[in-house]
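Marked as duplicate of an earlier ticket. Keeping the data here for the record.
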Amino acid sequence: MRHLAGQDLRNFLVAARGATADWQAPADELGEDWAAQFGDRAAQLMAVWRAADLDEHVAVPGGGRAALRSRADQQITELAVHGWDLAMATGQQAGLDPALADHALSWARQMLRPEHRGPDRAFGPEVPVRPDAPIYQRLAGWFGRDPEWAPAGSAADHRS
């Protein structure tokens, strides 16, 4: 949650305004009511996106410029993947929107390059998943997660 509320939402707010976020900056600390902090930051972010011109060109890491919508795609992907992470960790898989995962996977397949994968990299190697697996399993595998992972002691952890 600290990564999502204290780093992602902070950085996506900067990015949605067309500025360049510092992704290396540590996540902000969260208080006791982290859910309220998440809700407040998410509401601020949604307001900025509603007012944004998605066709406006902004600077991108590594140089060049791209439409602001590319940052929205990055955000959708980040939140879809971490939404899956949280759902798996807490056993609450219901309610994940398959359209978001489909959008995220399509975008990520264009953007996530092999040089970003591996030890000491942002992403692990892709975990093979059958092509007809549910979309969130394919998204998880693309991002180097084991779609069969379950918290220790959960019912899913005791599969035969």
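See parent ticket for discussion. Residues 1-52 form one domain.
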